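It would be a great kindness if you could assist me with a short task in structural biology. I am sending you one protein, given as its amino acid sequence and as whole-number tokens for its backbone shapes. I would ask you to consider whether the tokens describe a fold that such a sequence might reasonably adopt. The full record is reproduced below for your convenience.
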Amino acid sequence: MVELDAVAFERLVVDELDLLPGDMVDGLDNIIFVVEDRPEDGTLNVLGLYDGVALTERGQYGFGEMPDRIVLYREPLLAICDTLDDLHDEIHITLVHEIAHFYGIDDDRLHELGWG
């Protein structure tokens, strides 16, 4: 397990966001990225969450709605990683996975694509 405080972890998330391809992040609209220690239920088996309305489900969206959120859970991600390189990889995978949900790609398709 990698040990990393909240500030250093958030810095890694920002670094990984900066490394994502422009065509993946350029279409993100009304969305914020958040780091939390762990899910509300306290489990360590969820690495991230997309909380919002997928682009494919939006009708008259974008007029006064609260932003969608992509949440990365620090403790579960740290718990599954043995090295900083592993952590970088898992943060990257989790960001891609949750951003894909924003674009309307479901878990089954993400697993088929290797991002499950």
Summary: The longest strand covers residues 31-36.
